[in-house]
Design brief:
This protein is mainly alpha-helical. Helix content is about 60%, strand content about 5%.
Length: about 110
């Protein structure tokens, strides 16, 4: 994290975001423009979302990047994408735990054969 910190980064990031899909900017472009690390911008966006700021992101299609919105349908679509991503992450976590548990079990003759 830079010397700005997440709270101040948010104060720099939010005014730099455009309104609507047509004003979408990539995290990399924002990083260059604002002189902040990409991860710090991502953290600021996550914090703003937690505080109720309507921010959408897309990594594919015509409008790649991040933008502010006043469209409730866009917010709902963003919710669905983030929810699906969270479900996949939870499934990965479950699999990792099962792998760790399997690694802790002693190897038996039946496992070798």
């Amino acid at each position: 994290m830079t010397a700005l910190g997440v709270v101040q980064a948010r104060d720099v990031v939010q005014p730099a975001l455009g309104w609507g899909q047509g004003a979408a900017q990539t995290y990399d472009a924002l990083s260059v423009r604002l002189g902040l690390p990409r991860r710090e911008i991502e953290e600021a966006v996550e914090g703003m979302r937690r505080d109720g700021v309507a921010i959408c992101t897309s990594s594919s299609g015509k409008h790649r990047g991040v933008w502010l919105t006043s469209d409730p349908d866009e917010v709902r679509e963003q919710y669905r994408r983030l929810r699906q991503r969270a479900i996949h992450q939870l499934a990965n976590l479950r699999r990792m735990l099962r792998t760790a548990e399997a690694m802790e079990r002693p190897l038996t003759l039946w496992d070798v054969a």
